[in-house]
Amino acid sequence: MATTRSWKKHAMLLAFVFPALLFYIAFTLAPAFGGIAYSLTDWNGLNPAYRIVGLANYIEAMNDRFFLKSLAFTAKFVLYMLVLQNALAILLAVLVEAMGRSKVWFRTIFFMPNMLSLIIGGFMWMFIFTRVFPYLADQTGWRLLDQSWIGDPRYSFFAILALSLWGGVGYLMVIYIAALQGVPQHLKEAAAMDGAGPLAIFRHVTLPMIYPALTIGVFLTLNASFKAFDAVYSLTGGGPGRATQVIALNIFEEAFSFSNRYGYASAKAMILFGIVVVITIIQLAIMKRREVQA
Amino acid sequence: MNRLGGRLGSWTALLFLLAAAVVTLFPIYMALLNSVKTQGEMLTNILALPSSLEVGNYADAFRKINYFRSLWNTFVVVAVGLAGIILFASMAGYKLSRTPGKLSGFLFGLLVMSTLIPFHSIMITLVKISKELRLQGSAVGLGLLYIGLGVAVAVFLYHGFVKSVPKELDEAAVIDGCGEFRLFFTVILPLLLPITATIAILNTLWMWNDFLLPLLILTDYKSYTLLLSTNMLFGEYNNDWSAILASLVLAMLPVIALYLALQKYILHGIAEGAIKA
Amino acid sequence: MKRALHLLLALTMTAALAACSSGNNGGGTDSGNNTASSSPTASETTGEATKATPKKVELKVFMSFPRFKDQFENYFAQFKEKELAEKNIDVSIQLEMPNADQAKQILQSRLSSGDAPDLYTLHANDIPTYFDAGYVADLTGQPFVGKLYEAVTETVKYDGKVAALPLESLSWGYLYNKKIFADNGLTPPQTLDEMKAAAEKLQSAGVKPFLLAFQESWIPQLMMALSLGGTVSSAHPDWIEKMNAGEASYADVRSVFDSIDLIMANGTDKPFETGNEAGSAEFANGGAAMWVQGPWNAETILKVNPSMEFGVAPLPVSNNPEDTMINLATSTSLALSPTSANKEVALDLLNYILDDKDSSALFEELKFNPIATVHTYEVFPWVNEASEYVSKGKAYLDLKLPNGVTDETAKLLQSYYAKDVTQDDIIASLDKVWRTSVSSN
């Protein structure tokens, strides 16, 4: 009797999940395996004939100077984004929540960049960096603005950072606002009565209570920044040369420009996938554990 | 509470927020501002107010990107994608959440894993598959592809949100003689409205602004989405900026409208879905 | 609210279903799925019965210049009339016009997934790679071939066969500002030393000798195209063969860096902030005396300053004036897919591009250079200037490098200016890319 019940339960589960699973397998999972298969060949994306080269692509990737450089550059980018995006999002969330009726306006404004494609945002920011900044620098005499924001790798890193933050903070802010709304008012008031200043209240009352949201925020930032493409593509194209080339761009160019080594590029994409999986698992494990404690 | 400190604090907060708002809106303002200038004006002084409102740019852009046709194409893609994602993901997320166990855990993990897969590694095989299935070249076909690509995240969100729907409701309905499917469609789905709205806006944003996949799938420029049509304005050697900027503004409008309509739900939806997960 | 959302959902589903079944809008639904299907109607008799229902044929055409959408649509409409009148075939053309930036990726995805368009544009330098992969049909013997200028035909030949129909054909070197040259008493230098002297003269007159616009990587790559082209064509004629066989290296032609270094050392500021558009504007307004760019940029330059007068001159690559030659190249060409299901009609369209009557008007409208005997329109002055060099024999065919080498060169030259890589790095990198490209084909 119990078995027929659980049979029926499993059947029901599969019935409900079937359509979603079908589409998913057809359009995400199967192509993913296709990608893995290509990574073991030397296919050049064009010629129907190709050879199986096993793990040769992977080994080559490990020694590919430009690939490794892009890994390092991406890692640096991820670190900055992780800290800045979440800090800014939390800051904005706290401040917006503290506002009265203008709350709704601010929320909408900060979420707006999210509604645009980063490619479009990139063009708009490109205007700003290459035309508006020098103009402002002339008017105000503020030399800092008159740099080669796109051409000089030291500055283009920050340009890309600015664009990505502009496009991404809004989304995280919304998550944090929701989390903040779940912090009981009375706890904060109790702490205030005990003589704690706003900063201390935040650190000891609010922050621990929004920890789950922090886990999500970190997860999303890690995930997205490792795969960052649109922002870099539209602003610097990875240039000058390869100075600002993130992994996704390195893979993309390998597959579609240059010698069109699609097989090789797929191997690199798999490596990227592996890195993201490992880091994500570690991150979730660590933060979920602390969540329970807090 | 230190009254003075509080007032000062909230003034600085306001100032900071205003500054942040200016920075956030600035690029959009620039696009708007320059979309009503002539191209020459734009290149000489990019910050200045236009000498006259070149509304003609909009009419021009309208024609060049064939606005209504592109809009319709985009709409079809999004509609098909959304319909599939919402329907299938809600079913899956609901059942997965209600049915604990190894099978459920495995399926859930399988679906969620997809968020980590980089698009470029599945791209070519995806195009191949879409060709075999004759999905290529049509907006509807593209929409179907998006279902497959987007259903996983939606399942994740539904899965979390369903926890806030009391199990008692399921049981009560079953006692009333309600079949599983009827239970789902008449009782559960309506209660999932907030997260559905969120999923709707998030996926709409994604599909509306997506570039690479539509480019690969839509083989006739007459079936291009808004973004693709606008992209045609970027010439090989020079760009038609007046038309481009006007098009960008035109493309933004429907999305902003949708957002404003569903605003209330988005906040709640993201919260419930993300945090409860 | 709930009801509204239900309604919305219901509406979208019905709309989706409606869009599915009616198979209209946004084109390319059903028609797009049947790859060039020809549904022979009742009348197999072609031509006899005057009232016979025309045979329906669909062609998929892929062209990477969206800026010419209107011109080609019109031209295709003319073609349709002609086919209908002469052969009783009703042709419908599905035209795909991606931006040049993404065209290559899309084309490759299509070709490799078996979804080849019937006709597609291809950069002439890519012909070898695509031909070897079996995606390009042999067009030798087609009517249009006989009408082409001989020099132009050479640019689209591979392995002795004509592989594509040339569309954009150019003679180019670098552009120079005629007024600045006149003001400073200069004529186009014929040797490297003369170029150095000219640059110095300009600098002391407060004029920047060269315009540098490196934001878009294809522009710095032009420098290599010219210097390598000139060096190989004059002093190392079998270098490409040897490279393909793995017996040579870029180190053999290290002298290419002489002209590149000269240009980079005497250029305008902030090159990475200057894209093609900005560069054209600067050049048109006299920001520099010379620019390593081609006449394809004429439209962009003249848009900024319609009265600007510029000329085309060959880039010196050594101190031997014989080595200073004009580069003759075909950029965009039109190829036929061997797997096309409607070869005959596709060939008709192809040949129509060089039609005796209509082709001249088309090419004039597109502002392409004349490439065939059927072209009778007036050309721009700089075209004549370049042609003079060609007729004196001071020209060479643009080099056909393996797939990927050009792109890699573009990136490396950007890095070179930014001092990220050295000459040796470039040599090693390019050698490697060449080897890999050759072996994976």
Outline of the structure:
Chain A is mainly alpha-helical and 294 residues long.
Mean of all residue-level pLDDT scores of chain C = 82
Q: Considering DSSP H and I runs of 4 or more, what fraction of the residues of chain C is helical?
A: 40-55%
The tally of strands of chain A reads 0
Distance between the termini of chain A: 43 Å
Helix content of chain A: over 70%
Mean pLDDT score of chain A: 83
Q: What class do helices, strands and sheet pairing of chain A give?
A: mainly alpha
Percentage beta strand of chain A: under 5%
For the biggest β-sheet of chain C, the strand order reads 2-1-3-12-6
Q: How would you sum up the global shape of chain A? A: globular
Question: Of all protein chain pairs, which has the greatest interface, and how many residues does each chain bring to it?
Answer: A-B, 88 and 85 residues
Oligomer: heterotrimer
Distance from first to last alpha carbon of chain C:
61 Å
**What is the second-level CATH architecture of chain A?**
Orthogonal Bundle
* Rg value of chain A: 24 Å
Overall outline of chain C:
globular
Unreliable stretches of chain A (pLDDT < 50, length at least 5) are none
Any idea how many domains of chain A?
A: 1
CATH topology of chain A: MetI-like fold
Stretches with pLDDT under 50, minimum 5 residues of chain C: 1-49
What's the CATH topology name of the largest domain in chain C? D-Maltodextrin-Binding Protein, domain 2
